[in-house]
Amino acid sequence: MSAETKDGKEAEFEIKIDTSKMSKEKAEAMMVAESSREDKWESPSFAGGLFMGKFQPELIVPFPEQTPEDKIIGDKLCKEVAEYLRANLDPDEVDRTREVPKKVLDQFTKMGLWAMKIPKEYGGLGLTQVNYNRVVSMVASYCGSTAVWLSAHQSIGVPQPLKLFGTPEQKKKYLPRFREGAISAFALTEPNVGSDPAKMSTTATPTPDGKHYIINGMKLWCTNGPAADILVVMARTPPKIKNGKEITQITAFIVEKGTPGMKTEWRCDFMGIRAIQNGLISFKDVKVPAENIILGLGKGLKLALSTLNVGRLTLPAACVGMGKQCMNIVRNWANERVQWGLPIGKHEAVANKIAYMSSTLFAMEATTWLTSAMADKGGNDIRIEAAMAKMFCSEAAWKMIDETMQIRGGRGYETAESLKGRGEKAVPVERMMRDCRINRIIEGTTEIMHLFLAREAMDPHMQVAAEIMLRVPLGRKLKAGLKMANFYSKWYPTQWINTSMFPGYSEFGPKLSRHMNFVERTSHQLARSIFHAMGMYQNTLERKQVLLSRFVDIGTELFAMASVCALAKLRHEKDPANPHFVHLASYFCKESRRRVDALFAGINDNDDRQANKIAKSMMAGEYKWIEEGIMKCYED
Ligand SMILES: Cc1cc2nc3c(=O)[nH]c(=O)nc-3n(C[C@H](O)[C@H](O)[C@H](O)COP(=O)(O)OP(=O)(O)OC[C@H]3O[C@@H](n4cnc5c(N)ncnc54)[C@H](O)[C@@H]3O)c2cc1C
């Protein structure tokens, strides 16, 4: 199979995963996914190192701060946007009417918000990732739907892939249009294709003269799609034939609004973020010039994955914004509401929730802003950090909104409109919960993030050991065996004997240094455990999704711990009289350590096999008896 090298040439690509025992469909999906991932590690990765027992605190300490000049730009824009939205947008009305008013969208054009990440040379605001994320975070704290309009456009829509991979002509043609208010969308998902794009059925067929492509198919859940002026559309172009085998080609096209044959068939309605424009879009003989291909034929998924490696960072920023809103609501209510003679926040059960929320929010901030700053700084490979930040923050935000609802009691469940109608403050917890839930699904579901992270985390091992597990000629196997023995004979002992045996990180102070030490020590334990699992399961490890998820979750906890310690250190140095940064970080780390211990325990002591059996029986209908006594929502 072929893949792209850095200099743009075609290179032989050889899959490092044994697909010989997989079904044809799964093997094809695996091939497509493997050939689309960035397979090089040209810059260091802090979080990636954790899985190899390589702890590199110098990559995250000192915690990267915004420069004063950059901060002024962000402060000014955030203030302007907040003032405008407060005066002109009622988020509950947006939710009820399913519309973000046109005058607000037009005002965004005046403010340049559709061009926040477009370089200044193309008329954009040229914001850093941090400032862009700050704006979206703040908008998300107020109105989830409005935040999605902005973020779907710029995090996954046309601006980001064009910025990364567009030709000079494409950039010159399209990028200035976003400053004029053009809105974009990203169309990958189809009715039968969600997490696994290999089976995509939308086709793009070249015309006989090769100057155009004709797109036919359906795209589902395309956010901004019904309103978009310019879309990126992924479609299957004719397969390549190599060694007699068909190789799936997925290509990204720029498609402009008004191109004949494109139609919004249905505007989808959702549980939350109800005012997004999201639709089922059909393409019938849609003719697109060949120069509208971005990155090249067959490079569509690579483009999507690379775009998301940074684009994905806006979602955790949005979760942080919502988390801060939860804190504000809970702080007020926990003080104001008195039951059983005490403000409810003073009852231990509620106090515990508040501690969880405060410390987790601090860690969410740390992972989000650390990774965003790394994206601005360059020089680090952040694909693992960005996926971890997405997964960690979307999961944590969901728990935070759930606890917020619990603490608000019945009022949490009541709509803001109803609360207001009977004379209480219109606190929108019910809407926020509905808006928040999607974050665990879009831009990579939590399950797919686990798989993505497991693949990336295992890559250094696969670079060394994959050939041993593959069906390759004996000579290559022997050579691979030698390479592997050479690597692991040096690497493995250092996973037992290393600097983590001694106390260190005194610059973090007595509380946090212990946690930094734990992260270093545990990264070695994690690396050993992964190595042992590879030995035990060999080429079946890829199927042990729950085991791999445990490894990934441990790595993610370690990343969050190190990030929050680095952030607390920075804040404490700036404000030494304030003990709270260290307290919060320390509390988060202690809780995180307990979760890590439980995850390690689960590696050897679990019921995964039994769970698989139960799922199999259930799916075969053997447990139908448990469904008795209901009125089914549909007959099967
Ligand atoms: C509000 C909204 C906005 C969206 N915006 C866009 C957009 O702008 N552009 C776009 O292209 N798409 C968009 N999507 C689609 C979104 O990205 C998909 O919903 C998402 O990728 C998951 O696909 P799916 O829903 O088909 O789930 P499926 O892929 O069918 O998965 C269903 C479940 O199975 C799990 N699962 C699937 N495969 C595996 C596996 N191999 N191992 C373990 N678990 C697995 C998933 O995690 C999930 O829990 C949007 C969706 C929604 C609801």
Tell me, rounded to a whole number, the average pLDDT. Answer: 93
How are strands sequenced across the largest beta sheet? Answer: 3-6-7-10
* Beta-strand residue percentage: 5-15%
Largest sheet: 4 strands, mixed
Return the structural class: alpha+beta
* Percent helix: 55-70%
- The outline comes out as globular
How many helices? The count is 22
Total beta strand runs: 12
Oligomer: single chain
The value of Rg in angstroms is 25 Å
Total tally of structural domains: 5
* Ligand inventory: flavin-adenine dinucleotide
Distance between the termini: 42 Å
Unreliable sequence segments: 1-12
Describe this structure as you would to a colleague.
There is one protein chain. With 636 residues, this protein is an alpha+beta fold. It has five domains: 1-36, no CATH class; 37-62 and 447-615, no CATH class; 68-179, Butyryl-Coa Dehydrogenase, subunit A, domain 1 (Orthogonal Bundle); 184-300, Butyryl-CoA Dehydrogenase, subunit A, domain 2; 312-444, Butyryl-CoA Dehydrogenase, subunit A, domain 3, CATH 1.20.140.10. It has helices at 24-36, 46-50, 68-88, 91-97, 102-111, 129-142, 144-156, 159-165, 168-179, 300-311, 314-336, 348-377, 383-408, 410-413, 416-421, 429-436, 446-469, 474-494, 509-537, 545-574, 580-604, 608-619; strands spanning 2-4, 10-12, 184-187, 203-206, 212-223, 230-242, 245-256, 262-267, 278-289, 293-294, 338-339, 342-343. The strands form four sheets. It has a four-stranded mixed β-sheet with strand order 3-6-7-10. Strand 6 and strand 7 (245-256) form a beta hairpin. It starts with a strand and ends in a 17-residue tail after the last helix. Flavin-adenine dinucleotide (FAD) is lined by residues 152, 186-189, 194-195, 221-223, 270, 278, 438, 441-442, 445, 447-448, 451, 545.
